[in-house]
Design brief:
Layout: H1 9-45, E1 53-57, H2 59-62, H3 66-72, E2 79-81, H4 89-94, H5 96-99, E3 107-111, H6 119-122, H7 126-144, E4 149-153, H8 167-172, H9 178-194, E5 198-200, H10 226-236
Amino acid sequence: MIDLANLTPEQQELLQLLQKQADDRMAEQLRADQANKVRNYRILNRTAKKGAVLFTGSSLMEQFPVCELARSAGIGRTIYNRGIGGTTTDDFLREIDTVLLDLEPSVVFINIGTNDMTDRVYGDGWMDHLEANYERILQAAKARIPGAKIYCMAYYPTNRHLPSQAEWQRVMLKDRTRENIAECNRRVKNLAEKYGYCYIDANAGLTDENGEQKAEFAIDGVHMYASAYEIVFENLRKYLE
């Protein structure tokens, strides 16, 4: 690890420039990956069954193997997953037709907003930004798929103290504290009730004695292994049967 204190101002400036270039390349690759997923989803939506069950959101939804878990559990309902990694609520609203409305689902599970939880992009008002966009999503659903039953899922717990975490991961998780997540969940619950939808917390069994995501479930402190999703699935299974 580079000790910044031992670098000259010129070296520090060069290091910052190289980091920015690397960040820009990663962001560009992420946008390209997202665009490809959106394109593929649009193609698949042409032949998807209307009135099915839809899981949608960001990477935490994309990585949820719900279709396989449901099939293994003997649940025969048609289920689609339209999660896209790295998606913010801004991204979701921009592609809301593809990831939600065009499918005309009868049941929807939403987990979106985790990537909004950062002051690096939205400043101190990031939580208000998340809430406002989440309301716009529910408003669009109410207008376009009024008969759909929508479940707004509680945000998953994080773990900001894993020994394996790199410094950049700790920085990314800075605002995803237990207190902030609890407040975001409170706001999502209020919005769900406001629009006549259901708020569900499928997180029982995911946390340790400190209220953080259990280390054995944690990939990086945010994303989770399939063993965690097995628990999530069992917690929400009753809404699928």
